[in-house]
Specification:
alpha/beta, two-stranded antiparallel ribbon, 15 strands
Length: about 280
């Protein structure tokens, strides 16, 4: 993944939107990038093509955008309000048209505190976004966070995982933090039409993990762990112990340079106790 130059955050004034703003503030500060804040207001019950609100229509969105600018004080911030369309569709279109490198979203405020649950907006973005997407856990906006101290990366040796590791290493260099590289050996699963069981992780997991630690440890404090169990649950549990950000790759097939959730990354976002960042396919 190339360096982040511009970050986009969708903001609707909800507690989940506040969570997204806090994560956006932190990421933009670490990356040293500008922020585009977008609010999408519904026009009515019928779907219509979205459009930038005219000056006389902006009054409704003004309090939201003022609050966003206050939260992101000290950063280079642009705010826009749109009417019509779906929030996910508007954000996705803007990210593609304006070469945004990272989208930040919040969780709907239901479920347990500290879990990066995703609602319809994030779900829509995480199946085809043209750039990396990061989801803030519930309650993240209730406090101001310091730069990431420990960054965990889900790693299985695939090109997608290598891209996630490169992004994690760069972030760790920027924050002076450390990397925790997590490789999971999942239980064998039965495949239709196949006699016996097929493992979901190659048997050389220890070598895969050790090689990643060796490659990442130049200039960064990196440690590796090989874990066993269902991948998403195991990774989420391993992130309980002081992990500030968990990075994962997209699934291994589909259009290139797109974020595409596989079964593991989808479950991971629902279970993780910290912000999750999903990088697009290389």
């Amino acid at each position: 993944m190339s360096e982040v130059r511009r970050l986009l955050v969708g903001y609707d004034g909800s507690p989940g939107g506040d969570d997204a703003l806090e994560l956006a503030r932190l990421l933009a500060t670490i990356e040293g990038v500008s922020v585009l804040v977008v609010s999408v207001l519904p026009y009515g019950p019928l779907p219509v093509t979205y459009a930038l609100l005219a000056e006389e229509q902006e009054a409704e969105a003004a309090p939201l955008l003022d609050k966003a600018r206050e939260k992101l004080a000290g950063l280079e911030v642009e705010t826009r309000a749109y009417g019509g369309g779906s929030p996910a569709g508007v954000i996705n279109d803007l990210a593609e048209q304006e070469e945004v490198d990272l989208i930040v979203v919040g969780s709907p405020h239901r479920g347990p505190i500290g879990r990066a649950l995703i609602g319809s907006v994030a779900e829509g973005l995480l199946h085809g976004a043209p750039c990396a997407v990061s989801a803030a856990p519930r309650g993240y906006g209730s406090a101001e966070h310091k730069p990431f101290g420990t960054i965990a990366v889900a790693y299985d040796g695939t090109p997608e995982a290598k891209l996630a590791l490169a992004h994690g290493r760069r972030l760790a260099e920027s924050t002076g933090g450390n990397l925790r590289i997590l490789t999971v050996i999942s239980p064998p699963v039965a495949l239709p039409g196949v006699v016996g069981y097929t493992p979901t992780m190659p048997p050389d997991a220890e070598q895969i993990n050790a090689r990643a630690v060796s490659e990442a440890s130049s200039g960064v404090d990196a440690e590796g762990q090989v874990l066993s169990g269902p991948a998403a649950t195991t990774l989420a549990e391993a992130s309980e112990g002081g992990v500030d950000l968990l990075i994962a790759g997209s699934r291994h097939y589909g259009p290139v340079t797109r974020v595409l959730l596989g079964s593991v990354s989808s479950l991971l976002i629902h279970k993780a106790p910290c912000p999750v960042l999903v990088v697009p396919r290389p």
